[in-house]
C-alpha cells in the first residue's frame, strides 16, 4: 500500500524516495479519495518523527527537516486533493511571547499544524500581551499558541492570559503553551488549557480541542 510506504519513508526521513513516490502517484491521476489517504499518510509519518524525537532518537534538526519534507510533499499533492484541501480544520494564532526571541520550536509546530489542516497566523517573536489580544480580537481564532524558552516567558504568558480575561476574550479561545520551562504546574498557574514540549503532541491536542 502506497500510503503505508509513504508514512514509513517520511518517518525514516527518506526525502528522495518520498518525493519520487508522490510524484509518480500524482502522475497516475489518482482519485481525490486516494489522494486524501496519501495526505493522511504524510501526517502519520510526521507522528512517527514526533515519537522518535520524544524517545531521543531524533533531534531538533531532524524535526525541522521533516517539517520541510512534509511541506514539499503537500505541495506536490495539492493538484490532486481537490477543493476540500482549502477547507481548514481551524485557525491558530501563534506567537513567541514578550521578552523571548526563540522561534525554532514555534516554527516546527507551525509547519506541523498547517500540515494537519490548520490556518496558522504566526505573529513572530517578542510579542506583547496587547498585540496578542488585538490579534485574537481581529482574527477570532479557535486556538492561541504561545511559545517561550526563557523562564521569564512564563510571566509573559500569564500576563497575556490575564489581558485576554480583561478584554473578555479568554472564553472565546483555547490556549496551548509550549517551550522548555513549561510544566503542568506552570500551565495551571498561567491558566492555559494545555501544554506541551513536543510539537507533534501539541498538534494532536489542538485537533482534540476541536472535536
UniProtKB/TrEMBL annotation:
InterPro entries: Cbl-bd_cap, Cobalamin-bd, Cobalamin-bd_sf, Met_Synthase/Corrinoid, Meth_synthase_dom. One of its GO terms (molecular function) is metal ion binding. GO terms for cellular component: cytosol. One of its GO terms (biological process) is homocysteine metabolic process. Keywords: Cobalt, Metal-binding. PROSITE patterns: B12_BINDING, B12_BINDING_NTER. Gene3D superfamilies: Cobalamin-binding domain, Methionine synthase domain. SUPFAM superfamilies: Cobalamin (vitamin B12)-binding domain (SSF52242), Methionine synthase domain (SSF47644). The lineage of its organism: Bacteria, Bacillati, Bacillota, Clostridia, Eubacteriales. It comes from Alkalibacter saccharofermentans DSM 14828. This is Methylmalonyl-CoA mutase C-terminal domain-containing protein. It holds the Pfam family B12-binding_2. Residues 89-211 form the B12-binding domain. It comes from the Bacteria. Residues 1-89 form the B12-binding N-terminal domain.
Amino acid at each position: 500500500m502506497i500510503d503505508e510506504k509513504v508514512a514509513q519513508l517520511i518517518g525514516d526521513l527518506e526525502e528522495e524516495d518520498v518525493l519520487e513516490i508522490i510524484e509518480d502517484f500524482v502522475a497516475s491521476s489518482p482519485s481525490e479519495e486516494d489522494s486524501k489517504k496519501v495526505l493522511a499518510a504524510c501526517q502519520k509519518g510526521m507522528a512517527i518523527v514526533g515519537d522518535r524525537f520524544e524517545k531521543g532518537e531524533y533531534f531538533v534538526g531532524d524535526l525541522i527537516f521533516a517539517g520541510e519534507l512534509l511541506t514539499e510533499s503537500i505541495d506536490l499533492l495539492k493538484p490532486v486533493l481537490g477543493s476540500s484541501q482549502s477547507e481548514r480544520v481551524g485557525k491558530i494564532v501563534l506567537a513567541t511571547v514578550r521578552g523571548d526571541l526563540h522561534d525554532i520550536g514555534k516554527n516546527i509546530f507551525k509547519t506541523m499544524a498547517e500540515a494537519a489542516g490548520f490556518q496558522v497566523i504566526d505573529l513572530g517573536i517578542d510579542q506583547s500581551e496587547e498585540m496578542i489580544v488585538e490579534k485574537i480580537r481581529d482574527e477570532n481564532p479557535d486556538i492561541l499558541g504561545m511559545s517561550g524558552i526563557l523562564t521569564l516567558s512564563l510571566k509573559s504568558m500569564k500576563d497575556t492570559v490575564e489581558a485576554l480575561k480583561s478584554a473578555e476574550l479568554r472564553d472565546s479561545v483555547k490556549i496551548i503553551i509550549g517551550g522548555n520551562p513549561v510544566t503542568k504546574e506552570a500551565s495551571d498557574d498561567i491558566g492555559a488549557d494545555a501544554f506541551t514540549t513536543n510539537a507533534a503532541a501539541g498538534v494532536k491536542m489542538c485537533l482534540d480541542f476541536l472535536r
